[in-house]
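Translate sequence into structure tokens.
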Amino acid sequence: MVDKHCIGGIPGNRTSMLVVPIVAAHGMLIPKTSSRAITSPSGTADTMEIMAEVTLSPEELNDIVRQERGCLAWGGTAKLAPVDDKLISVERPLGIDSRGQMVASILSKKLAAGSNHLLIDIPVGPTAKVRHMRDALALRKLFEFVGDRLNIHLEVVITDGRQPIGRGIGPVLEARDVMQVLENNPLAPSDLRQKSLQLAARILEFDPDVRGGQGYAIARDILDSGRAMAKMNAIIDAQGRKENASFTPGEITFDVTAKDDGFITSIDNYQISRIASMAGAPIDKRAGIELFKKLGEPVNSGEVLFRVHAEFSANYGFAKTLCDHDNGYVIGTEANIPMSFVAF
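Result follows.
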């Protein structure tokens, strides 16, 4: 039984919703349970809830996983680690996410779910949860140390956390990104697609019948052929499809534009998350941010960097005030664009 987990801190990073149907379509068991957002504008459970029921009993989860080989559910009702659920309920309003408790939280739930092969994603970037490579390597060592003593085959991948993944931030906008990738829509965000394929490849290579290096080609074939989309639809139906699910974001909007010509040299993950949260995400499912410019891209003065969506005028005002103070984007010269990041 396999699973994956990202430690978070990167807005829009909904790779689990692509990895699960790819891996399940291959035939491996992947019971993915996730917490709701603690300090971010959306968690996997918040985004999946746009399309399907995520509040499921342990018995329901067991039946769904046995039937479809995977699930995407909220862990709060799974009763995998009751003490951890109580700790998270305290952490969320306080904005706390400590390293030791994070490792204990992740591994306890994966162990309780029966997973014996686990992939951990640690994004690193100047405004990510982990900001320096040395800290990422120390955290990887801690995960491996604890995983080894729990007899879990655990691999850690350190990925690019310099900017948000995908274009949407907030439950509805992130769900739209995921469905565009699954549908092989030409408008789908390529960074979300590529990262999901790379993570799925690492998990597929846990299968002894898949030789090292073959995982990516298999994952890409499952996605391109439509098998991943078919599996996602099967999982949604098994969990309980939301009738009349809409991917239309909030209609109260404002655009944030560039003040200068140049190139995008930095995007502040934390500030972008704060703006999306001020707009109402994840409580207001249709609230969030739609990104139009990413790291390294050229921009002209007056060009739209991102659009903020809200459902209520008060949230619109809070988000607008925050954007006026700091919109999270830095525009500079081409020479200021940070060097490419190599995941390992």
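Note: The two ends are 23 Å apart (CA to CA).
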